Amino acid sequence: MDVTLFVALLSIAIGYVPYLLVWAWKRNQPVRLSLFTLGLIASVVSLALIGFAIGFFGPIVLTPSANQGPLLGIFITGPAGAIIGMLGYTLYALTKAVRQPNQQPKPTPYRRGLP
């Protein structure tokens, strides 16, 4: 067996075995996404797309003769945008939780609209 084929099969096994184990464990449970998870996904995807677009199309516009310009968006600015989005939203959520702790609303002594 060729070494590169062995390494490829080993990397596939290492990548998919944990995925299959988690899938088998969670397959009958409903998926519930929290507000934090949705916000995190939205910020990561949006900043990754913005970084990718700037890094991909920017070199095409600025130097059309450079054939490796779009690789900047694929390998550098796209992943950097995703990391910045993840860290930024996590810091935002942590500071928001510190500013607004979970407090019960104060009861009002009367109902509005009633005499």
Rg from C-alpha positions?
24 Å
- Structural category: mainly alpha
Topology as a string of helices (H) and strands (E): HHH
Q: Which sheet architecture does the biggest sheet show? A: none
What ranges have pLDDT less than 50 throughout 5 or more consecutive residues?
none
Helix content: over 70%
Q: Beta-strand percentage? A: under 5%
Q: What is the count of β-strands?
A: 0
Shape: flat
- How many alpha or pi helices? 3
Distance between the termini: 87 Å
Q: Give the averaged pLDDT, no decimals.
A: 82
Q: Can you tell me about this structure?
A:
With 115 residues, the chain is mainly α. It has a domain at 33-100. 70% of the residues lie in helices and 0% in strands. It contains three helices and no strands. It has helices at residues 3-26, 35-62, 71-99. Helix 2 runs antiparallel to helix 3 (71-99). The longest helix has 29 residues, at 71-99. The radius of gyration is 24 Å and the shape is flat. The N and C termini lie far apart (87 Å). The model has no long low-confidence stretch (mean pLDDT 82).
